[in-house]
Amino acid sequence: MTGRLRWVEDERDAALRERDRQRDLVLALRRSRSYLLGRALVDLARDPVRFGPLIARRAARRLRHGPAAEPAPPRPVAPPVPARVYVAIGLSRADSHALVRALRQRIVVDADHLPVVVTDQPALNGLRVPGVVLEYLPDPQTWSRHDTGEGWEALLAGRISQLCRDHRAVGAVVIDPRDPPTLARLLEAAA
User: Fold this and answer.
1) Is residue 174 within 8 Å of 85, Cβ to Cβ?
2) pTM exceeds 0.70 for this model
């Protein structure tokens, strides 16, 4: 009895495998270009008035959108670009905006790094610039009113080191407030 039951189960499993194989073959055939073309020709021959416009719409859609293709394999993910910290302390409002604009234009031209700007300019607090990370620190006078025992220099050094760790920065650049860089000088330094 047990042998008969195993034989029946084996027959059932073989029938299921054969059914699945046939289903996969039929689906592959229905997706093939030759089958689709043949089906369109048969439909057109059977009823040209009804299927002619339908076939024309399908062809136009394929021409507009391209053939229905398999999804592309995922592309390898590019490694993240390194960051560079720009310490822009003591710049005027206009110079701060010019620096951020120049950095933004620089990464549009050559996106070789992520600029992280540390500034004490209140006008940049809360500003969002695509491609540029802005970090606001209060100026030394404001910080002295809220000082918790650490000096402002310790706060600045700690924040710069934290940003370097967070963004995996490859270096830091201190911006001279008397001579802030222009886009041309930023591009020169990159070359």
Assistant:
1) no
2) no
